[in-house]
Amino acid sequence: MSETELRTVTRTEARGVTKRFGERLALNDVSFSVAAGELLAIIGPNGAGKTTLLSILGGLLRPDEGSISRPAREIGWVPQQPAVYGKLSVRENLLLFARLERVADPDAAVEAMLEQTGLADRAGDELGRLSGGNQQRVNIAVGLLADPPVLLLDEPSSSLDPRQRERLWEFVEALARDRGTSVVFTTHNVAEAERWADRVLVLADGEVIFTGTPDELRAAEHDEDRTDFEGAFVRFLRERGH
Amino acid sequence: MRDLAAIRFLLRKDLQILRRSKLLVGLLVVYPIAIALLIGVALSRGPDKPKVAFLNQVPLGQTVTNVGGEDIDFAQYADRFFEAIDPIEVHSRSEAIDKVESGDALAALIIPPDIVDRLNGGLGQGEVEVVYNGDAVKQSFVQSTIDAELAKANAALSAKIRDVAVADLRVLTEGGEIHTPLGSENLLGLRTAKEILEATLRVVPEGSSIRPGLEQVDNFANQALIGLDFATPALNAVSKPIEVKSTVLSGSRTPLDAFAVALAVAVSLLFVAVLLASGVLALEREEQAYGRLVRGLVSRGALLAEKIVLAAACAALVSLLMLCGIGALTGVDWGRFGQWLVALAAGGLGCSALGVAIGALAREVRAASLLALLLALPLAFLALVPSGSVSSGLYAVVRVVNAAFPFKPSLQALDAAVNGADPGLVGPALHLLALTVAYGVLARVALRRFTA
User: Fold this and answer.
1) From the CB of residue B22, how many other CB atoms can be counted at a distance below 10 Å?
2) Are the beta carbons of B16 and A88 separated by less than 8 Å?
3) pLDDT per residue over A186-203, tens digit each?
4) Using CA atoms, how far apart are residues A91 and A120, in angstroms rounded to an integer?
C-alpha cells in the first residue's frame, strides 16, 4: 500500500478534548474526526475556541482532558501570522525548518517546496521584503516541509487579497486531492468555508454544535435555495443562543 | 543529540540575522562601550580644579618671614595651593567678589596684607578670607578643596615651627648658637651650667651662706633638664597629634583607575549580554516562530540554552576586544589573559541568563530591550554603592540585591581577573554559574507561564 493510499484510509481524531484557562472553560468535550484528503473548516463566533482547538491539535497546548489520535510531529501547523524570519531569505527560512524537522534531504525538500509554491524565483529574497501573500505562502510551505498527513491552517487567508486567496485555496485543495493531506482550517469567512470545505464544524463557547457539510447546515436552516449561507449560519447560531 | 543539532541550526540562524541587523548590532556594541567608557573615565579622573579668584594683598618681597633664624617663604605655599585650584588673579576685594557673583569663579581667596606680620610678630593667628557663591553643591566642592589645601599649609607651617622650636630647645639644654631677630648668640646650655654648678658646689664648704642658693639653682637646672627631655616628643605630638595607619581588612585594594577598567568592561558585558539575550528570545515570539519551534522541533530548555550561549559569546567577545583596547593604552597585566577569558565567560553566562529571563516575559524586542535597560542601569548603580555611604540596614538590602543579580559578581570576577583583586576569581565565577542556572530555570518557568 502506497503512502497516499495509506493516508486515504487513515482518519485523524480528537476525542473528548477539554481545555480550561483558570476558571474559563475554553473547550468542552470536543470530539471530531477528519479523513485523509478531506478539508474541514472550523467556524464559529469570536472566542468560540477555534484557535485553542487548533493549538491543541498542533501540539502547542496540552488538553486538560481528552486526546488526539496523532502525535504533533505528524501534523503540519500554519499559524495565522507568518511564523518565519523576516531577516532570512525564503530559501534560508525553508532550509532552517527543513533541518529542524529532520527532513531526510533538506535541500531537495526545499527546492521541491519552492517549485510547488511558485516561490522559486523569489528564493533569494529577504522574507521581510515580500508581499503579505507571498509571506503567507512561505508560511504554508514551512508547514508542509515534512510532508505531514494533516495540515492545520489558522485563518490562512485573512491577510490576502481576493486573487491571492483564490490561489491559496486552489493550492490547498490540490494538496488534499492529490496527496491525500487532511486539511483542518479555521476562518471567519463563512463563504470561504462553504466554497472550499468538504465539511464544517461549528464551534461556539467551546462546544461543537454542528458537524456536517455546508449543505446540511443550510438544510438545518431551510436555506436549500442557496441564497445566503452566511445568513443561515448566523440564524443557526442565534437559534442556539450564541 | 537531537537538541544539540537544533541548537547548532538556531545559532547559525541567529548569527545570520545579527549579521544583517547592522544598526542593531552597532547600537548593541557602541552604546554599552560608550556608557562603560564614560563611567570609567568619570571614576578614574578626579573632578576638574575649581576656579578660584585669588587676591594676594601681601606686598611684593614681603612674603618671607624668619622663624628661629630660618626663612619661610609663604609664596611656596601659594604655589602648592595653585596645584589644587585654577586661580583667577584679581587685584582688589571687590573684583574678587564680582568674579564669584558673576559665576566666573566658584570662590574667592583673599590673603590680607598683614598675614606675614601677624605670623612673624606673634600678634595671633594669620587669617585668610574665603568668599563662596550660594550654590550648595559647588560650594561644598570648592570649600572642601580650599579647606584641605589650607590644612596642608597649616600642617607644613606647624612642622617648620616645630623643627625650629626643637632645635632651640636642644641649644637651650646642650648649648650652642641660637638665632633671634636681634642676632646670633652662643648659649652655655643647661647641662653645661649644671656641671659648672656641681663643680662649684663641690668646693663650697658646708654651712657657707651661698650654698643653699647654689643648691636651689642646681635643683632647678636638674628639673628643667628632665622637663625639656619630654618637650621634644610633646612638640612632635602637638604638631601632628594623630598619625593615620591604614589597614584594609577586606574588599578590593585595587587602585581606582585599575578598578575603572574592570568596571568599564563589566558594564559593557552586562549591557551587551542582557540586551542581546532578551532581544533574540523576544524576537522568536515577535516573529511568531516560537510556537513553531517548541511544538517538537526544539525543547524550550534547548532554545534558552542557545540564546544564553549566543549572547554570552557575543558579550564576552565585545568586552574582550574592549579590554584589549584598554590594555593597549594602559598598563594591564597581559599575563592574566587566561583569567580574563574565565571571568568574561562566567560573567557573560550570568548576564545572558538574566537577559533570557527578561526576554521570556516580553513578546516584542522593543519591550524586552526596554525592560533590560530599566533593570541593567540600576544594577550597575547599586553595585557601586560603598559600605558606610548608606545606613547599615539599607546596605544589607543592597548587598542582597547585588548578590541576586549577576553584575556585582561579574565586576568582582573581572576585578580579580584583571587586577588580581580580592576575593579572587573562583568565588565570583561559581556565584555566576549558580545565577546562570537560577535565571535559566526562571526563564523556563516564565516561558511556560506567559506563552500561550
Assistant:
1) 9
2) yes
3) 998 888 999 999 999 999
4) 9
